[in-house]
Design brief:
The complex is a heterodimer of chains A (about 220) and B (about 90).
Chain A (H helix, E strand, L loop, with lengths): L9 H28 L4 H14 L4 E3 L4 E3 L4 H8 L1 H18 L8 H25 L4 H28 L5 H37 L12
Antiparallel strand pairs in A: 1-2
Helix pairs in contact in A: 1-4, 1-5, 2-3, 2-4, 3-4, 3-5, 3-6, 3-7, 4-5, 5-6, 6-7
Chain B lengths: L1 H18 L9 H13 L13 H26 L5 H4 L1
Classes of the chains: A mainly alpha (about 220), B mainly alpha (about 90).
Chain lengths: ~220, ~90
């Protein structure tokens, strides 16, 4: 979903930067506070940072379609560490990928942060919380959050592309067409993201429940 | 045993992806979705960074990034779960 350099007009790219910087700034402040209270979160933050970087970098082939795409990783980070921390980790991954991997762009960083870091984190976090409050199991809730977080990310990217490139057509029509072109590739990867997210969340909750004390995995 | 079955299943999916797809694997799905719209709008990708990373250099960066990221993930995983995998290592 990484929008490349130059595809978004300069004004829109700047406009996406404003909320992106706000979310990342709030996330950094929150992260500093949380680490001061609970320094033992540091390795979990390091693990999630590495996962988000790797998961959102690796191009996975989809059999039969001849296309590649990637999951996001931010839903898992948001479930385990909260959506603002997920936003920070996603934004760092996007920045490194834009600098060294020709994946995304510096001018499109703000738009990509809003789609993958903010959209993926907050939608997954909301789905997870609602699912848990509805009494659904930990693994199922995490998987559902991973699935929705992934698809929301691509829905936002489609909207950003449509807003930038709709020309004379209605933005919503172009958004629908762009999102539809993502789905055949992205649905299998969203399912993979759901399974991976559920597996990791359940494993961490079973092995080191104390790490998540007060975190969202506690019903 | 179950772990190896899972590894073989995942490997099978990737082998099938390569063997049974006639496409040329041209780029990320975002490019596939955005390129027709960009061409229609007369917009092209641009470059703002003073360096351009492509070809084998990009491959090198991907491999290096994967190695560094993988090492970091493994390091923090072992910090969080020091006992995991100890049976296999013994």
């Amino acid at each position: 979903m990484h929008i490349p350099e130059g595809l978004i007009p300069a004004q829109q790219a700047a406009a996406w930067y404003v909320p992106a910087v706000g979310f990342v700034g709030a996330g950094l402040v929150g992260l500093k506070r949380r680490l001061a209270i609970n320094p033992e979160l540091r390795p979990l933050i390091g693990l999630m940072g590495a996962f988000v970087f790797l998961i959102s970098l690796i191009p996975l082939p989809v059999p039969g379609l001849g296309t590649v795409s990637h999951p996001c990783g931010t839903p898992m980070a948001a479930i385990l560490l909260g959506p603002l921390t997920g936003t920070v980790l996603g934004s760092v991954a996007l920045f490194l990928q834009a600098l060294f991997f020709a994946h995304g762009g510096i001018t499109s960083w703000g738009a990509n942060v809003i789609a993958m870091a903010v959209g993926g984190s907050f939608s997954a976090f909301a789905v997870f919380r609602v699912s848990r409050r509805a009494g659904l199991g930990l693994g199922f809730s995490a998987g559902l959050a991973g699935l929705i977080g992934d698809l929301v990310t691509y829905g936002i990217t489609s909207f950003q592309i449509a807003l930038a490139l709709h020309g004379d057509e209605a933005v919503l029509n172009v958004w629908g067409a762009a999102f539809a072109s993502f789905l055949p590739t992205q649905v299998p990867l969203a399912i993979a993201e759901a399974l991976f997210t559920a597996g990791v969340v359940v494993y961490i909750a079973n092995q080191r429940a104390e790490l998540l004390e007060g975190a969202v995995v506690r019903p | 045993m179950r772990r190896w079955v899972l590894v073989l299943m995942v490997a099978g999916v990737f082998v099938a992806a390569v063997l049974f797809t006639e496409s040329r694997w041209e780029g990320d799905v975002t490019e596939g979705a955005a390129t027709p719209l960009a061409e229609k709008a007369g917009v092209e990708e641009s470059q703002v960074l003073p360096w351009k990373i492509d070809g084998d250099l990009l491959l090198f960066f991907f491999l290096s990034g994967g190695a560094v990221g993988g090492f970091a993930a493994g390091y923090y995983w072992r910090t969080l779960f020091p006992g995991s995998g100890s049976k296999e290592m013994a």
